[in-house]
Design brief:
Layout: E1 2-3, E2 7-8, E3 12-15, H1 22-29, H2 32-35, H3 45-55, E4 60-61, E5 67-74, E6 80-90, E7 95-102, H4 111-125, E8 131-136, H5 141-150, E9 153-164, E10 167-177, H6 178-186
Parallel strand pairs: 7-8
Antiparallel strand pairs: 1-4, 2-3, 3-5, 5-6, 6-7, 8-10, 9-10
Amino acid sequence: MAEFSFIESERLYMRPYKDEDAQAMLEYHSDPAVVRYIPWPVRSLSDVQESIAQNKNAFVLNAEGDYLTLALCRKSDDQLIGQMNAMYRSEEHRKGEFGYVINPRFGGQGYATEASRALISALFESGLFLRVIANIDPRNHSSVKLVERLGLRREAHHIQDYWFKGEWTDSYIYATLKEEWIQKREG
């Protein structure tokens, strides 16, 4: 079991959700462009409040299938700017998956890269994972650039492998191994 109740980087920190996060979350959860490649529809305030209620305690990865979702905040002003997610994909194969959503108002400042680096490091430091992956729609050019900037390796391009929001979509699988990640950080 691993608890991820607080993860920090130079400019950011991640923590469990609070009820008072609803308005800041609504800003990006209600944006069709933001949720285009995310597995939920555009959300209303009540949808966001329900999501917070369901995910307040989603900061522990204990067993295969567990899901982690953390509020992503700036240290400088405690502003919630997005969220970080992870999933315990396979206990047998020691595989985790990570993802993120950033409010576009805070895009272009390196926050997603910084937070992803901190989350991946925390996942490996937990001792649960040998391998961490990202599953990305190839049309999501920003996410493709981000994982490549992080140094993840594209291992697969699956053709029409997901029925997603009314259409068949492709997916890229990017991955890094614990030893590779440590080597990059120390190198």
